[in-house]
Amino acid sequence: xxxxxxxxxxxxxxxxxxxxxxxxxxxxxxxxxxxxxxxxxxxxxxxxxxxxxxxxxxxxxxxxxxxxxxxxxxxxxxxxxxxxxxxxxxxxxxxxxxxxxxxxxxxxxxxxxxxxxxxxxxxxxxxxxxxxxxxxxxxxxxxxxxxxxxxxxxxxxxxxxxxxxxxxxxxxxxxxxxxxxxxxxxxxxxxxxxxxxxxxxxxxxxxxxxxxxxxxxxxxxxxxxxxxxxxxxxxxxxxxxxxxxxxxxxxxxxxxxxxxxxxxxxxxxxxxxxxxxxxxxxxxxxxxxxxxxxxxxxxxxxxxxxxxxxxxxxxxxxxxxxxxxxxxxxxxxxxxxxxxxxxxxxxxxxxxxxxxxxxxxxxxxxxxxxxxxxxxxxxxxxxxxxxxxxxxxxxxxxxxxxxxxxxxxxxxxxxxxxxxxxxxxxxxxxxxxxxxxxxxxxxxxxxxxxxx
Length: 452
Description:
The chain is mostly helical. The protein has 7 helices and 12 strands. The chain has a 3-stranded antiparallel beta sheet, with no helix packed on it. A 3-stranded antiparallel beta sheet has the order 9-8-10. Strands 1-2 form a two-stranded antiparallel ribbon. Strand 3 and strand 4 form a beta hairpin. The longest helix has 109 residues, at 192-300.
């Protein structure tokens, strides 16, 4: 690799989880590579969620990807270790001269060197060369040296150019000894070191209280995750069961639709068949009457007395007509009463669906994980007894879970952030939303006439 002119860095072959050189590298579907044991342990923590994410790009996978050893990357890493190119790092830059972010030495002439120490008595910065008198000369033995920093300039009083060694509790600001004579005269002042010790004790108490809250939250977090997992599993089961129930209802409605259609067709067939039979009977009687009429007309024109007398005996008796059943002769005859009954059934079904959806919606809002928010508790750090009016530090209140507060909860989803009050609505008979004004009208049950 060195002969090809390629410069490789050790960080290019590091696992982003353990921050060490890849061991038994594997590549996940998004293209990033990790140690086999590292990514397996990382995904084992999210096994209960069923969703697995890449630690770098956060791309999610479901189901859990099957990991395979990246043989090519394994060979490259092995050759990289053998060549030792990862140890060939460039030499560190020369930091003897001050750069843009460094503190300059106050003694150097010309180009300033980088300061390493700052004297609290001399109020000056020194490089490695000019700080030596503070170590070697007895005149500087009592001077206190600290690491050089640009923030140390803030420790100088802007009015008197003296070191800020005091703290005024009245004005809650630092001061020098000369400030006690004018600006902070008669104020409650203490040494800055003493104030720092007191506040450090208060911060330690706050840290212990924070650790207790962290332990409590760490105990509540798995329980909340388990509740989320259980509710999600129950929601999926309820959705599948509701789908099955509504599928049965749809099949039942389809069956009733088919039965009504068959009833209409059967009634049509029966009525038409009866009418056709009666029509056939009437046609036969008409034929018989016409035949008898023709015979009478022939006899009326016969001149032979003997033939007339002999033939008239058979036609003197007129044919007997059968009694006809009542016939409805109405060109507007239709299935209007049947459609009225179907319309009544539709209205009754809409009322039942409306009441059912309202009942489902009311019960749906009772299924929650996070209950109403509780008032936050402010924990006050104990005040030290050696000060008369030390500033009391109050621990920040822990924000409520899931961003809940005293504002009204979203009526459609209690886990969403609270927003402005939304208008109430109702479901239509078949699931669509209705406005507030139409809700009252749909909630009033209409009186449908019952067919006897």
